[in-house]
Request: fold
Amino acid sequence: MKIILGIESSCDETAVALVTDGRVILAQRIASQDEEHRPYGGVVPEIAARAHAERLAPMVEATLADAGLGLDDVDAIAATAGPGLIGGVMVGLVTAKALAMAADKPLLAINHLEGHALSPRLADSELAYPYLLLLVSGGHCQLLRVNGVGDYTRLATTIDDALGEAFDKTAKVLGLGYPGGPAVERLALEGNPRGVPLPRPLLGGAEPHFSFAGLKSAVLRAYETGQYSKADLAASFQQAALDCVVDRTKRAMAAAGDVTALVVAGGVAANKAVRAALEGLAAGAGLRFVAPPLKLCTDNAAMIAWAGVERFALGLTDPLDFAARPRWPL
Ligand code: KG4
Ligand code: ZN
Reply:
């Protein structure tokens, strides 16, 4: 059995996990920085980096203690090396390098997006390559054909905002605070999804790309008319976004060729309406639908450790001078 220690610090979650190649999460801890960033309505990079630096080392110790393990029991150290807020990424990567050096263990420099992309395989041992992945988070909105570890065909991306960003900006317009996605989802349950006429950017477009900036602006304009309730605005926004996601994913399904499943991952995959809509789409096409459990959707270290498990099994370790990458497309 192999045990990988994973570290995540690319945005506003400080997270540490221990995961085995038998898909067991031995221990995991997540410290959210929501309280620190809430007054600013979004993540402040400098505050995030400092909070990661304060919390990470004690969290590594505590997570090992939770599992009753020492650093010597671990086979390799995996950390997010990008993309993300560079200060936080550097805190996590440097910590991983120090641990790897001290314990003489290999380092695995993980692409955060690969962590999201492979996370469904941690929860589902049956999920085989290749699969069609909708990766929707605060910073990314892509449709990928996941062919194998490190082998991705990007079928679509967003030409402006990411889906999570659209949720967050809508939440800001409606005064729902930060983080916005879950708040919009909650309020949408009380509203009429057809109550506010909103655009569906790129719906029906030949390429499966996304665009959400126009939708977000339309929410702002509708809000400013004072004609609509916040619940109707939230519900109508979510419905418009969903219509786009389903249409774009359908287009990508036609372009992807043979795949074993339709898979959704990333923070927005925690949204139940998104999951239900995609499940319906997959069922209609006779395709399996896979979504990781909610706590594996938003940023966490188990997905980083799992990507480490997959890379370690292929011998894909990294040198100690691996540089953090603020931008790092899959
Ligand atoms: O993957 P993630 O935790 O961090 C990034 O790598 O970006 O994703 C965070 C994003 C945020 O935009 C957040 O508002 C969104 O995921 N999100 C949701 C929900 N939970 C998180 N969006 C809609 N509905 C949710 N339930
Ligand atoms: Zn993420």
